[in-house]
């Protein structure tokens, strides 16, 4: 979902239609990966979504994951970095490996336990946009970052109006104190 300034910072996890909620692709894939069926998802619009008994592959005990959301069921994405920060594979290499059993087994080992996005990333693609870490990123990376935010539980929360006012007042006081302490530059 695009913010007012045209930058993509948040994604809808659920879409409401009447009294029912439908998951986005990202949210559905994460729930499937963690083994959380719909009956173990608790939604409190404007507050959070709780994934009850999420079982990470290789983890000893399942645990609850609480995802902060706004009133539209949108989550703020915590981006890991620009496009180059992610691992990329050429689909043609994987396709060619399908003829060679040993090479295919190497790819299987490489991808084991991972969620893989397959996407068209040709230059000039219309499926790109600005995010906080990159002026122009393939939006498949946007979805990968959304998944990563949930799986690593590195959530960001929007400040309330009161908290924003407190931060602005604190910055105003700091600027005021600095203006008395230092001479202006000409």
Proportion of beta-strand residues? 15-25%
Overall strand count: 9
Mean pLDDT: 87
- First-to-last CA distance: 43 Å
Backbone shape? globular
Unreliable runs: none
Largest sheet: 3 strands, antiparallel
What kind of oligomer do you see?
A: single chain
Based on helices, strands and strand pairing, what is the structural class? alpha+beta
| Gyration radius, rounded | 21 Å
Counting DSSP H or I runs of 4 or more residues, the number of helices is 5
Strand order of the largest sheet: 4-5-6
- Topology as a string of helices (H) and strands (E): EEEHEEEEHHEEHH
| Percent helix range | 25-40%
Note down, in words, how this protein is organized.
The structure is a single chain. The chain is α+β, with helices and mostly antiparallel strands. The protein is built from five helices and nine strands, in the order βββαββββααββαα. The chain has helices at about 25-35, 90-95, 100-110, 140-150, 160-180; strands at about 10, 15, 20-25, 40-45, 50-55, 65-70, 75, 130, 135-140. The strands form four sheets. A three-stranded antiparallel beta sheet has the order 4-5-6, with no helix packed on it. A two-stranded antiparallel sheet has the order 1-7. Strand 4 (about 40-45) and strand 5 (about 50-55) form a beta hairpin. The longest helix is centred in the last third of the chain and has 21 residues, at about 160-180. It is globular, with a radius of gyration of 21 Å.
């Amino acid at each position: 979902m695009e913010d007012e300034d045209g930058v993509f910072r948040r994604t809808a996890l659920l879409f409401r239609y009447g009294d029912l909620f439908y998951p986005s692709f990202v949210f559905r894939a994460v729930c499937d990966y963690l083994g959380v069926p719909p009956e173990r998802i608790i939604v409190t619009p404007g507050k959070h979504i709780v994934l009850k008994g999420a079982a990470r592959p290789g983890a000893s005990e399942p645990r609850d994951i609480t995802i902060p959301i706004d009133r539209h069921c949108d989550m703020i994405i915590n981006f890991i970095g620009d496009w180059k920060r992610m691992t990329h594979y050429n689909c043609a290499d994987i396709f060619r490996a399908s003829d060679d059993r040993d090479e295919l087994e190497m790819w299987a080992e490489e991808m084991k336990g991972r969620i893989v996005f397959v996407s068209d990333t040709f230059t000039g693609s219309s499926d790109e946009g600005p995010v906080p870490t990159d002026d122009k990123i393939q939006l498949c990376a946007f979805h990968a970052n959304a998944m990563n935010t949930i799986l690593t539980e590195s959530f960001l929360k929007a400040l309330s109006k009161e908290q924003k006012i407190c931060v602005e007042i604190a910055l105003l006081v700091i600027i005021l104190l600095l203006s008395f302490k230092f001479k202006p530059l000409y």
